[in-house]
Amino acid sequence: DIQMTQSPSSLSASVGDRATITCRASQSISNYLNWYQQKPGKAPKLLIYGASSLQSGVPSRFSGSGSGTDFTLTITSLQPEDFATYYCQQTYSAPPYTFGQGTKLEIK
Amino acid sequence: QVQLQESGPGLVRPSETLSLTCNVFGDSISRSYWSWNRQPPGKGLEWIGYTYHSKSLNYNPSLRSRVTISIDTSKNQISLKLTSVTAADTAVYYCARVGSGWIQLDPWGQGILVTVSS
User: Fold this and answer.
1) For the segment A85-108, what is each residue's pLDDT rounded down to a tens digit?
2) How many CA atoms lie less than 13 Å away from A73 in the CB half-sphere?
3) Are the beta carbons of B94 and A43 separated by less than 8 Å?
């Protein structure tokens, strides 16, 4: 299985800050990397697919970058509704399409 | 707008079979791949598997011996069966549509909590 490791596991930031979350794959996955946002008690929501493509309806303050093994999710100018848990998922090689362990973004 | 809704029993006894359905509204189930995923309470996400017309199946190796995903086109519905459940199968179960190209999951159902307990 391809292992996905996110860092940090948790992150404290203030409204208006820039937040960066990284995701590392145990082997090259090209650009087959998707990012999801999950709020408590809710289903995950797709933010970024193909490492850098913004899902329709997602604010432009969210962006993704990277290829191969190292990927980044960046949120510029954090808004109150952005405080949530974020997951990366590789879809290069199945089975299984593995998720990262998650990064909890909290308000400082 | 496509919507997915999971349903099924919220409590299953150990060693029995967990059976869930996912109703799809606003899209023909024949046009896409469909996936099941789960999330134990307080933990991360786990991919269970996906199907297309029940002819193209791909399951998580950790669950392959116990899981079946199928499609009922007449009801526009996806099903999940997981046999011989234990407490470790307690989780919120989500269905999701699989996008073409990057195999992204969108949208997701709201999820259903299934507890395995006697």
Assistant:
1) 999 999 998 889 999 999 999 998
2) 31
3) yes
